[in-house]
Design goal:
It is built from 7 helices and 6 strands; from the N terminus they run H-E-H-E-E-H-E-E-H-H-H-H-E. It is α+β, with helices and mostly antiparallel strands. The longest helix has 19 residues.
Length: 180
């Protein structure tokens, strides 16, 4: 935990890499990083990569090169707020939310499971996000007979909910999330 804290507080001392194609690298050089989103009301629009579809960086240039042939060295701006998704969810908060709103709070988006006159605190929102992150990416589901990972329906549910939670995190001022 101390190492993660030190890392999060000293982004300016770390070098990050992003690899992509030559065409994409040229576009990044002209316009900066952009992640395209589709909205039914306003159509296609560009975003700076705040959560959502994602922009991926790593401290390991060798890992970055697995994803493209052009390697970019990038930095994170001071004041960037990142949520460490890999921390376990607070079990006490999960239990409280289930008692308060029923089991549905773990199976639906908050605005579908919680009465309109109630709001989640930031801590509750983060706990639910980490709960769905854990059940999408951290939990072991075993392997089938061909050695391929299983992706059971309950994992699909958590994955879909995780995407909905990312939009809420943006509203709370987070710039990104990841397994830090």
């Amino acid at each position: 935990m101390k190492m993660v804290s030190e890392f999060l507080n000293n982004f300016d001392k770390h070098i990050f890499y992003h690899a992509t194609s030559l065409d994409s690298a040229e576009s990044i050089a002209r316009h900066g990083f952009r992640v395209w989103f589709q909205d039914n009301e306003i159509g296609r629009y560009a975003s700076g990569g705040n959560l959502g579809t994602g922009l991926y960086i790593t401290c390991n240039w060798r890992i970055a090169l697995w994803f493209g042939s052009v390697l970019l060295c990038v930095s994170i701006r001071p004041g960037t707020r990142l949520l460490n998704s890999a921390l376990p969810p607070d079990g006490k908060i999960v239990d409280y939310l289930q008692r308060e709103f029923g089991r549905e709070v773990l199976k639906k988006a908050p605005w579908e499971a919680i009465p309109k006159n109630k709001k989640l605190t930031l801590r509750e929102l983060i706990t639910l996000f980490r709960y769905h992150y854990r059940h999408t990416w951290e939990k072991e589901y075993g392997q089938d007979c061909d050695g391929l990972s299983n992706w059971p329906m309950r994992r699909e549910l958590h994955s879909k909910l995780l995407k909905k939670f990312k939009n809420l995190l943006v509203r709370y001022g987070f710039d990104g999330c990841g397994n830090l």
